[in-house]
Amino acid sequence: MADAHPFSGEPATTREAIMQATFHALREHGYAGLTIQRIGDHFEKSKSLLYHHYDSKDELLLDFLEFMLAEFEQAAPDDDLPPREHLDAVLDHALAAKLPDDQREFTEAMVELRAQAAHDDRYRDHFTRSDETFREEVASIVRDGVNAGVFRDVDPDDVASFLLTLVNGAMNQRVTAEETQTGDVREEVEAYVQSRLLADE
Amino acid sequence: MADAHPFSGEPATTREAIMQATFHALREHGYAGLTIQRIGDHFEKSKSLLYHHYDSKDELLLDFLEFMLAEFEQAAPDDDLPPREHLDAVLDHALAAKLPDDQREFTEAMVELRAQAAHDDRYRDHFTRSDETFREEVASIVRDGVNAGVFRDVDPDDVASFLLTLVNGAMNQRVTAEETQTGDVREEVEAYVQSRLLADE
């Protein structure tokens, strides 16, 4: 989740321009190499604006994560799909076999940011909320499927927690180990959906 | 995986003493706060020994990860259990509902170390191998179960990759977000084992 990058167009506001500069600097330098100065290198307006708005690199990054989460929440993907296809679309997106290079760099940065949560409560609060957003999205799809009789009478929250954990694991693994097995994981998730979720015809 | 801590007894060799000091310093300071100096604070012998053996904190940490992996490989847990019970034991251990405080601190440090792999190939090589070790252990249990007719005719490698991803996700999540849902994940894994793996009676 939160691996989309809504930064292809021209930024409409100063905040968007700051977020876009942060995105590019994060891709280029990763968390450890990032400084407000380096974010400024990707920012067309005066760098003093950055220092005016943010006291530290972490404050800026936390605002950036907030911005990305709001983008994710607004996107509300494929809401008109039926439950089975909707779940497939979410899983296809989250467990895609191969990441394009630009998304890989971004995922690397997100994994580094998430690791900050191990010792920084502000990051921890953020990722608790962003996990919750993904979990609720999946639980709502599963609930629809149960109500429609497409899925068995499973606990939507358990299924969503399970799939969230799997997606977080895949996102982490794919940038911290050689990517050899992600395709197999997607296949086994499909087997899980079929054997555990799908109601008998 | 690699969240056991074989450092309760007296170290038998200098290397073990260095590893034990690294373990305690890592728990206390995390990756970012760690220095060879601080590892030395937990080391009874001369600190110059540390500088003699290791050129940098990362070299020492990579050796530490190697040491932990070897410990994990030697442990070979519960090899005499039948496949179903063996798999349960591995999953119970990896997805325990609540981490004791000392194991939590250590898991936090492991998650931070793993995040280094996003931009450091040496860490990436290590975690690729440690993932492989866990994956092979699980695949071998599943293969035994398929051969014994306890499990269905599943692909042991797909199942192992799937469970590895889940375990990595759980390990990451439990120290980077509020721990609210791990119990549910264990329950849903049990449902996966029952619906997907267990052969019909």
TrEMBL record, chains A, B:
Entry superkingdom: Archaea
UniProt KW DNA-binding keyword: yes
Entries under InterPro entries matching the protein: BetI_C, Homeodomain-like_sf, HTH_TetR, Tet_transcr_reg_TetR-rel_C_sf
Keyword Repressor included in the entry's annotation: yes
All residue ranges annotated as the HTH tetR-type domain in the record: 12-72
DNA-binding region: 35-54
Name of the protein in its database record: TetR family transcription regulator
Provenance organism: Halobacterium hubeiense
Lineage: Archaea, Methanobacteriati, Methanobacteriota, Stenosarchaea group, Halobacteria
